[in-house]
Amino acid sequence: MNAPTHTTTIAAIATAPGIGALATIRISGPAALPIARHISGKNLEPRHATLVAIRDRNGHIIDRTVAIYYQAPASFTGEDTVEITCHGGHLVTRRILDRILEAGAEPAAPGEYTQRAFLNGKLDLTQAEAVMDIISAGSDLALRAAQNQLEGAIGQRIQEQAAALIGITAHLEAYIDFPEEDISPDTASQLADGLARIRENLHTLLQTAEQGRLLREGIRTAIIGAPNVGKSSLLNSLLGYERAIVSNIAGTTRDTIEETVHIGGLALRLIDTAGIHHTEDTIEQAGIARTLRAGAEADLVLEVADATQPPCRIHLPETPRIHLLILNKTDLDTHHAWEGIEAIPYSCLTGQGKKELEHRMASAFLNSETLTPGHELTAINARHQHALKQASAAIEAAHASILAGDSPEYTALDLREALDHLGTITGRIDTEDILTAIFSQFCLGK
To answer: Is 202 in the same domain as 233?
Structure first.
């Protein structure tokens, strides 16, 4: 465990803005305990909840609160930390925080608590990122993936591959130190096989990038079809409330409407679009262009058709990855031409077919290679993906170098580069720009 590196003490309101029954104010740093004693007049024992009265400089009580002292290094940040739970009003929390700052603390920057936890060795960088993923998780699976990452699932897998790379590098370094000994063909073959295994393991981890995007951003789901087939009605039916205007007048929906619904542990971003048809109206044309763009960018397309009319399928410029045809208005007479065409029967009026549609939407992803909710749900983010690609390229170069019989110095350079890229994922390589970019996205008090 690293020793705490900061000499300043920071403070912030750690709970969300607004009025509530309770709020938490967090103090972290070497002066956390003296500041808490100064404003309350009481000594605090480690990990004991103590009822204290926070007083202003004139001795007047601001609020009666509960304070808990976490002695370093047994705290989230690895520093002395005091958490004060007070009543959750705007004025009382602000006045207590002002009193803490007046007593010597400095305002915490967004993400500074988690950044200190990382710098003090309490978390690696992947775990630090998981804190914000937990806060922003929009579905059960996204939350589970973030929890796995916070437990170190990604960091551990990266460290395992880094350790294997270090072992191979050590072999090469030995030959560099003793140049009179050439690398035997058998040894070179073993080293190349080891690099091939590492490359394959990194490739497996890279494949979770799309899974991570779907979990973090939600599944982009475009609802398309001709005018008056029930696209807006389907949106309202899936949401369970009237979000979009429903009318039998063609062209009612001229722009896209986006809402999120949770189905089967997944977050689906439903996008209601303008009906696709020929029109001379420039505004409708712009809406149809957005429809086509939404269909091209979607992870899932729900094509809605009118069961009472003959089939008239929509042809998108690009074939969507997952495409479900929904036959709406099946509570009325279904046109005979639909016989033999695979579609999900649905009625926005009665709700018939809703459970089947929800099951088909969820299973289309849960039973695919893109999203497999196993015991350990791993999902890298875009930053991890970029570093893994660079590490894989360096490993590929090292692999080729060994097979070509190049001097070990050249191969070792490629391996060091690969280790550097893996190090940026967990934070073993201290790059200030990476830290700033990551922690600046955190909310205040975290």
So the answer is: no
Contacts of 339 (CB under 8 A, 6+ apart): none
Residue 411's Cβ-side half-sphere holds a number of Cα atoms within 13 Å equal to: 27
Q: Which of 343, 366, 389 is the last residue of a domain?
A: 366
CATH number of the domain bearing residue 46? 3.30.1360.120
132 versus 185: the higher-pLDDT residue is 132
Provide the b/e sequence for 153-181 (b: ≥16 CB within 10 Å).
bbbebbbebbeebeebbebbeebeeeeee
**pTM for this prediction:** 0.74
Residues 344 and 400 in one domain: no
Is 273:302 a contact under the CB 8 Å cutoff?
no
The range of the structural domain enclosing residue 140 comes to 129-208+379-427
Handedness of CA 180, 184, 189, 191 (dihedral sign): negative
Residues of the chain by 3-state class (helix, strand, coil), percent to 5: 45, 15, 40
Percent of the chain with pLDDT over 90: 44
Tokens encoding 249: 């007048």
Q: What is the pLDDT of residues 395-423, one digit of tens each?
A: 999 999 999 888 888 898 999 899 999 99
Q: Quickly count: other Cβ atoms within 10 Å of residue 404's Cβ.
A: 10
Residue whose token pair is 């003490």: 9
Asked whether residue 361 is assigned to any structural domain, the reply reads yes
Both 98 and 68 in one domain: the answer is yes
pLDDT of residue 13: 96
Taking a C-beta distance cutoff of 8 angstroms, is the pair 218, 269 a contact? Answer: yes
Number of domains composing the chain: 3
For the cut 80, the answer to whether the pLDDT of residue 243 exceeds it is no
Q: What is the average pLDDT value for the chain, to the nearest integer?
A: 85
Same domain for 400 and 329:
no
43 φψ region: left (φ > 0), alpha (ψ -120 to 50), beta (else):
beta
Distance between CA atoms of residues 419 and 202, nearest Å: 12
DSSP 369-381: SS----SS-----
Torsion (CA) 287, 290, 291, 295 in degrees, nearest 10: 180
Angle at 271 between CA 249 and CA 237, to 5 degrees: 70
Residue 435 banded pLDDT, cuts 50, 70, 90? low
Segment (H or E) for 73: none
Note whether 229 and 338 are same-domain residues: yes
Q: What is the CA radius of gyration of the chain?
A: 29
Kindly state whether residues 177 and 94 are assigned to the same domain: no
Vertex 303: Cα angle to 143 and 277 (nearest 5): 135
